[in-house]
Amino acid sequence: MTFVRSVVYAVWYYLTMALIGLVCMPVSLFSRDAAMSAIRLWCGAQRLGLRIFCGITTEFRGMEHLPKGAGLIAMKHQSTYDTIAPFLFIRNPGYILKKELLKLPVFGIYASRVGIPIDRAGGAKTMKKMLVDAKKGIDGGQQIIIFPEGTRQLPDTPADIKPGVIFMYNELDVPCIPVALNTGLCWQGKGFLRKPGRIVFEVLKPIEPGLARKEFTQRLKDALDPATVRLVVEGRAAQK
After folding, report:
1. Which of 16, 57, 144, 145 is the most exposed place for a label (fewest CB within 10 A)?
2. Concatenated DSSP letters for 117-170?
3. Per residue, what are the HEC states of 26-88?
């Protein structure tokens, strides 16, 4: 049954992407606000589709910790859904994303409007360009979203903080807001099945700017790890 429901959702996923993406594209090409509205519409459709077809609910907690202006969002990463749902609760998101995503049909057009593409093999040159683009976003009041682990991890994996988020924290001089989640229990990082359950994104207390590298890294890890463990335990209990 889970397989059948996952197939139905996959059809919904790509059908809504094509319909919303193509209908909204003419205005989205010239307006970032229009592109953002189209993306939020599609992301809302995914939340609805997961609930109807797969029995997956999505909950957002800790919204009081989100900045009204610019900030650096350091989010755990377990699933593709981590790149979708934040558009529904973050005011003005700007994603650090792989440049390969810009090549995808329809999706790539919208990713180019709201994302900061990077070449993960580009070294120092990539980091400099990422910083320039991120600073432009910060100046415009964006909340820059970065996955501090760099790639998707299994739900029980402790946070492995990579240099990219430390570099951004040091250079942008804005609060860093950790986000814990348990998405991998329902939507696996590398898998087709969408398992019923409760997905929770929890925004944690901000980390003030200006900390030394070692202290910031430990503070971020100390925020993400226990919160993620708690949400994973809660999510597994809901799946029983």
Report:
1. 57
2. EE-TT-HHHHHHHHHHHHHHHHHTT-EEEE-TTSS---TTPPP---HHHHHHHH
3. HHHCCCHHHHHHHHHHHHHHHHHHHHHHHCEEEEEECHHHCCCCCEEEEECCCCHHHHCHHHH
Is the overall model pTM greater than 0.70, yes or no? yes
Structure token digits, residue 100: 């390969």
pLDDT tens, per residue, the chain with 240 residues: 899 999 999 999 999 999 999 998 888 888 888 888 999 999 999 999 999 999 999 999 999 999 999 999 999 999 999 989 999 999 999 887 777 766 767 777 787 777 777 766 666 677 777 788 889 889 999 999 999 998 899 999 999 999 989 999 999 999 999 999 999 999 987 778 999 999 999 999 999 999 999 999 999 999 999 999 999 999 999 998
Nearest Cα to Cα of residue 179 among 133, 134, 146, 213: 146
Residue 51 CA, distance from chain mean position? 19
What is the phi/psi pair of residue 232, to 5°? -65, -45
Sequence-separated (6 or more) residues with CB below 8 Å from residue 100: none
Residue 3: burial class (beta carbons within 10 Å; 0-12, 13-18, 19+): exposed
**Among 52, 39, 118, which residue's Cα sits nearest to residue 85?**
39
Residue with structure tokens 């990463």? 77
Could you tell me whether strands 176-181 and 71-75 are parallel, antiparallel, or unpaired per DSSP bridges? parallel
Domain 57-239: homologous superfamily in CATH: Glycerol-3-phosphate (1)-acyltransferase (3.40.1130.10)
Q: Is 234 helix (H, G, I), strand (E, B) or coil?
A: helix
